[in-house]
Design brief:
By secondary structure, this protein is of the alpha+beta class. It has 2 domains: 14-47, no CATH class; 66-130, no CATH class. The protein contains 2 helices and 4 strands; from the N terminus they run ααββββ. The protein has helices spanning 14-28, 33-47, and strands at 74-79, 85-90, 95-99, 105-107. Strands 1-2-3-4 form a 4-stranded antiparallel β-sheet, with no helix packed on it. The longest helix is centred in the first third of the chain and has 15 residues, at 14-28. It starts with 13 loop residues before the first helix and ends in a 23-residue tail after the last strand. The relative contact order is 0.11.
Length: 130
């Protein structure tokens, strides 16, 4: 099939363009209607950062411990692969490293209480471990 000339969709409105492109996108997805719906939902959730992944089938926690460190709400936590350290980030713009053996915490320089504005919108929302 040959592609239409470049001016073929010239008289198309924005809504008509969206409908045409949506139909092309859906047609390109393989599978039945249910598989297409799942794939579109997965891609939309990923785009809107509403995706979660199961990363451990068998994960057990030891006894609960309360650690005091963040001045405001903790918003993210990441456990290092060898489980020796935990990193946490919070609305106080701080990233803390917690040693699981000693309980010692390290506050990384930079963020804590150093807002660029008086707005409360600045915070650490994600912490990644290697």
């Amino acid at each position: 099939m040959t592609s239409p000339p470049s001016d073929f969709f010239e008289d198309e409105t924005a809504d008509e363009t969206r409908v045409r492109l949506s139909k092309q996108y859906i047609a390109a997805i393989e599978g039945d209607a249910e598989e297409k719906r799942k794939r579109i939902k997965l891609e939309l959730d990923a785009k809107n950062r509403k995706t979660s992944k199961n990363v451990a089938d068998n994960f057990t926690l030891g006894p609960a411990e309360f650690r005091k460190g963040h001045l405001r709400t903790c918003t993210s936590v990441c456990v290092k692969r060898d489980e020796s350290k935990i990193y946490s980030g919070g609305k106080d713009c701080a990233v803390l490293e917690w040693d699981m053996e000693t309980g010692k915490k390290v506050v990384f320089s930079g963020g804590r209480k150093k807002y660029e504005s008086s707005s409360k919108r600045f915070r650490c929302t994600q912490v990644y471990c290697h």
